[in-house]
Write a structure and sequence with these properties.
The protein has 243 residues and is an alpha+beta fold.
Length: 243
């Protein structure tokens, strides 16, 4: 945690977590062989013993799960299934739309469509998956902006939730400092693990997004349409920190 002081002596506490560029799968075990793919739609991610929807279920694959594609086959009703490996001993068939793969044409657009119809934590996780798998896609600036906008909205919600949770009569007056309760608020946990960073201002008991994705837009895509909005948002964030 880094601590800085504003000119009005308002202490700004920064929650520093994993960098935006760190892949979600950095610490996950990558299945052996084949082409790497990631589960993004758990509604379709039933792993089955055969390539059709009535085949016996092996398990339900969670979002973000890495699989290795070993082959493919179409079912009688026209669905495409991938034969995937989870480990050296576990393989099965999963409907292709449950996965995104870097080498399949149009998967970046398909994942963007899924991101746009998601919200809150799902949108952030799917946007992070996109940025891991398609860092050079022409759609990356759009996804970065969606990621940042959702993180900003989440910060507002977390602020209200934490304020209700830590009403003054709920906190001991002779215990740990009040700000430490906010920085340990359990609502932050899953965002912390996903790599989202927030600032916290104890004077007004509010979290705000730290702006990493906006800075990434300006660094990598300075001439994009999204860069205009990113500059505006960062200017607003800078003014907030000076108040």
């Amino acid at each position: 945690m880094h601590i800085s002081q504003s000119k009005h002596h308002c202490l700004i506490l920064v929650i520093t977590v994993f960098a935006l560029a760190q892949p979600l799968y950095a610490k996950k075990r990558i299945p052996p062989g084949g082409h790497l793919a990631v589960v993004v739609d758990e509604r379709l991610s039933a792993l089955r013993v055969a390539p059709h929807l009535r085949a016996k279920l092996i398990e339900r694959l969670s979002r973000g799960r890495l699989v290795s594609i070993r082959g493919q086959r179409s079912s009688a009703d026209g669905l495409l299934f991938f034969r995937v490996a989870l480990s050296r001993s576990t393989t099965g068939w999963v409907q292709s739309e449950a996965l995104v793969v870097p080498w399949r044409r149009g998967d970046d657009r398909r994942l963007l469509n899924l991101i746009e119809t998601s919200d809150e934590f799902d949108r952030i996780l799917r946007a992070k998956t996109f940025l891991d798998l398609f860092p050079r896609s022409v759609l990356a600036p759009r996804v970065l902006l969606l990621y940042a906008s959702e993180a900003e909205a989440v910060a507002e919600k977390l602020s209200k939730d934490a304020q209700r949770r830590f009403a003054k009569n709920d906190l001991p007056t002779d215990g740990a400092p009040e700000f430490s309760y906010y920085l340990n608020y359990s609502g932050l946990d899953r965002y912390n693990r996903a790599g989202v960073s927030f600032l916290f201002d104890p004077a007004v008991k509010r979290f705000s997004y730290d702006g990493a994705a906006w800075r990434e837009i300006l660094r990598r895509f300075p001439k994009s349409v999204e860069a205009v909005e990113a500059r505006k948002r960062l200017d607003g964030l800078a003014r907030l920190r000076k108040e």
